Amino acid sequence: MYRSKRKKNQFYRPFHLFSNLCIPILLSCQPLRDMLYSYRNKKVEMRRKPSLQKGSDPVARRRRYKVKNIVILILVLLIAIGGITTGIWAISNKGSEEPASTSSTQPESTDSSADASSSDVSDSSDSQSRISEPDDDWQLVLANLSHPLPEDFSVDLTTITGNYADIPALDNMKVDSRIVEPLLKMFQDAKQDGQNLFLRASHRTIALQQTYYDWHINHYKEQGYSDEKAKALTLEYIAYPGCSEHHTGLAVDIISVEWQNSGKEIIDTFEETSEAKWLAKNAHKYGFIMRYPKDKEDITKIGYEPWHFRYVGVAHATAIYNAGQCLEEYLGVLD
Ligand SMILES: [Zn+2]
After folding, report:
1. CATH number at residue 255
2. Environment of ion ligand 1 (residues, CB < 5 A)
């Protein structure tokens, strides 16, 4: 509705401007008025005196041509001024009116959201969105199935459990010391917004990852799956030892205190909790990204995990969040 109204205005406004402003200005110009009056008087005279009509007198004919030329000139001028007015109006309104009109269509339109998603698609293929930061060597470290961490990878860890009252956590939770501050701030701000976050997983050694991995393989085999199928099912959610982000100390699994107390398994319906929604919307402000989004499973090769967050720094997290990318896309590593 708003859109059609806008189109109508776009057409009529310059026309009104032209007819209401330019024509009166031109008519108020004395020489032009004189010219029009003299032309009209001559026509009246010609009607009265047939001898003055077309072809009868060469002098009168020249005058008629002259008057005709002046009238044509005036018409051309009017059209030109109208065109210029329309052009100026269009240019001056392009910048100021367009955003307001677009926002006025938002409440009822589906096409404006389609515009937004299509721009997201083009953004996500745009590797130019990557920013350079002094801490890139550790903030952007990539750990996935095709990029295992180097064997000598080491990290300075800080124990969270028992040391930070504002971060309710499972036993023995440790993270890279450099992310303690943003993690703490995120938990505190969430609490202020009424969201009770719980730190369920953090740094994992390769040995511990191996234990998880083996447990899952056996779990699927016991259900009758072949070795190959058991491995495929395990790798959907459990990274291969050495390829887990949890080895970096930059990845955390965060659920809600309520979910933790319920004893429920962590599954993707966690996304429906207010804590998950808060994290999805705000984590980037503290430098964390949802590392395995729902629509990026083909790229990350990991199932959707609305609880797994990875620290990359505020600048990168914000760029990734705004572009709707996953880390592999952002880094341009899509193998
Ligand atoms: Zn995780």
Report:
1. 3.30.1380.10
2. 253, 308
